[in-house]
Amino acid sequence: MCLLKLRPALLCIALSFSAAAASGAEAVKIRLSWIAPVTNWASILLEKKELARHLGGSYVLEPVRYVGTPQMITALANGELEIANLAFSTLPIAIENAGLDDLRVIADELQDGVDGYYSQEYMVLADGAIGRIEDLKGKVVATVAAGAAVDVAMRTMLRGMGSRTSATTPWWKRRCPPCVPCSPSGKWI
Description:
Blueprint: H1 2-24, E1 28-34, E2 59-65, H2 69-77, H3 91-96, H4 149-160
Parallel strand pairs: 1-2
């Protein structure tokens, strides 16, 4: 009976110690990935700090820019990133190839090609030489990163047109297109 009367007091004391320990603890650092400004929420998240009540207290956010989602897999595996916005093409690679079998989906940032949502657009000059996909034959095309969602889509589209090399030749093995500044060695800068 005496223990039952002490139980609430012991609980209060335990909660006081845990609160004191928590308030003296260092803020947790959360590194978030982004690729395209504004499109990826991590690039603009800190613009409205008042929405994150505990920002700077129990946690701090550090948005980190990446060229593409494949590089995020390496960062996750090395403990250099806590939240990554992986694409449909890189989530399975992260799980199967990198062994990151404890990943969790916590948000759906982009739905491309879904009615009512923005969809990826590709634009060309109105008076240019490219007016349809077939006009790409013999041209140099590029994406942000090998293995990224747009890279997979581009390779699939080009293979559907019968191309076998355009989508797989690394940029450093190609001659520079006339619109890109090059160094005297002919490599992109």
